[in-house]
Amino acid sequence: MARVIISGGRVVCGTGTFKADLLVENEKIAAIGKAKGFGRADRTIDATGMIVLPGLIDVHVHFLEPFMGTVSLQDFFTGTRAAAFGGVTTVIDFAHQEKGKSLAEAIERRREQADGHVVIDYGLHVGVTDPTRATLSEVENVIKSGVPSFKVYTIYRDEGLMLDDGALLALLQETRRHGGLVIVHAENAFVTEYRQRVYLDHGKTSAPYHALSRPNVVEEEAIQRVALLARFAEAPFYIVHLSTREGVGIIGRNKAEGFPAFAETCTHYLCLTDEVYDRADGIHYIISPPLRKKQDMTALWEGLADGSLSVVSSDDISFSNEAKLMGKDSFDRVPNGMPGVELRLPVLFSEGFRKGRITLERLVEITSTNPSRLFGLFPQKGVIQVGSDADLVILDPTKEVVLGKDTLHMVADFCCLEGMKVRGYPVVTMSRGKVIVEDGRFLGKEGDGRFLERKIDLKGLRNLR
């Protein structure tokens, strides 16, 4: 491995921003200080005028994901390559249990798809869909194997993903006992199914009715129910892709009372509203939970700033135009999801930091340090400190890019932020000391990424914002 010095940049950590040089050696950050004291280097990268950040961690991606009769477009190579262009150096995907099969089998099957193909490091959450006694008995060993986070759904009954409240409670208790974390897609299945039937029975099948079938109360009720069960179980929990102002309030109140409740929102909820469903291409924006109102978007930004929300993820799951058009005559047949793994850093810098909604330090917390702490990667990942992996991003704060499917690297027919102009863009991405993206060129190698065994420090989460 080359001995690399990054000189002249502004280094950003969750605790502050300062000018410093970095020495990278043997895949690690070897020193922070002044380059003249580092000795020789095989290469020096001039970061004068640039911002140096820890590599981003995206804890919510879906590569090669079977869903609603199709499979997402990006595989583990193309998805992680696109991630690298966006300054992402670690992703966590999902291994969903099949009915009648074990959690260990799900993890093994997913690793067969990923190992040898990822260009950056990755981990897995295991999705629990068949919560039998045998499944619950696996929890301890699965956590010990380095997969301590368990995804559950309170919706998608027809797809065989939904867990009932009793199973959810049992899983919360079992994961708390052994040091795991339950992460929840929180929507009320029964209200959603009822409202879908009403609209479809009246011939209201276009894209706007997807959002109307899932009003804010669908998410609010489910998050509140999860919070009540988690408090009874004395177990921390994490809500994925939170989209409503009511949801922000629930998580914020639990945190204020000292309970370890955590949530993420996603890039698209911070930039788009449900008005897009009225467009001719509205079905391309069908995701669950749906896009919301302007007041929800405002509440999400405020929740990120005040610590109610802890993470921004992408929830990347891209489907082809052909697959989306399977639902052209009925919103309930549209595969839910949009690409986004490459978008977080430029959007959060341009729309968040530049507009005064979040500080640079907070940007690092919600994209790197908090994901690392929550999901058992700290201090190996998500922070710039001596001994941590040299996962680094150099961002040019003056570089302007117009986002679009032709300017980005995600395998997709569609960009949800097509035409958005951002100012501030990653120009170098380094994974474990190796430059894998530089000035728009991919320099990485398929298979260079490694599987990450994780261990969550549950006690250490209580003061996380």
How would you characterize the overall build of this protein?
The chain has 465 residues and is an alpha/beta fold. The protein has 12 helices and 19 strands. The chain has helices at 76-85, 103-114, 133-144, 165-178, 189-201, 208-212, 216-233, 245-256, 294-306, 321-324, 344-353, 360-374; strands at residues 4-13, 16-25, 28-33, 43-46, 51-54, 56-58, 66-67, 70-71, 88-96, 121-127, 149-153, 181-185, 237-239, 261-266, 311-313, 392-402, 421-431, 434-438, 441-442. Strands 1, 2, 3, 4, 5, 16, 17, 18 and 19 form a 9-stranded mixed beta sheet that branches. β2 (16-25) and β3 (28-33) form a beta hairpin. α3 runs parallel beside α4 (165-178) and α8 runs parallel beside α9. The longest helix has 18 residues, at 216-233. It is globular and about 70 Å long. The protein starts with a strand and ends in a 23-residue tail after the last strand.
Overall, the morphology is: globular
β-strand amount: 15-25%
Instruction: Enumerate the spans where pLDDT stays under 50 for 5 or more consecutive residues.
Output: none
Structural class comes to alpha/beta
Task: List the quaternary state of the chains.
Answer: single chain
Number of helices: 12
Report helical residue fraction. 25-40%
Got a strand count? Answer: 19
Average pLDDT reading: 96
Cα distance spanning the termini = 36 Å
Major β-sheet profile: 9 strands, mixed
Radius of gyration: 21 Å
Give a quick rundown of the structure.
The chain is an alpha/beta fold and 465 residues long. The protein has helices spanning 76-85, 103-114, 133-144, 165-178, 189-201, 208-212, 216-233, 245-256, 294-306, 321-324, 344-353, 360-374, and strands at 4-13, 16-25, 28-33, 43-46, 51-54, 56-58, 66-67, 70-71, 88-96, 121-127, 149-153, 181-185, 237-239, 261-266, 311-313, 392-402, 421-431, 434-438, 441-442. Strand 7 (66-67) and strand 8 form a beta hairpin.
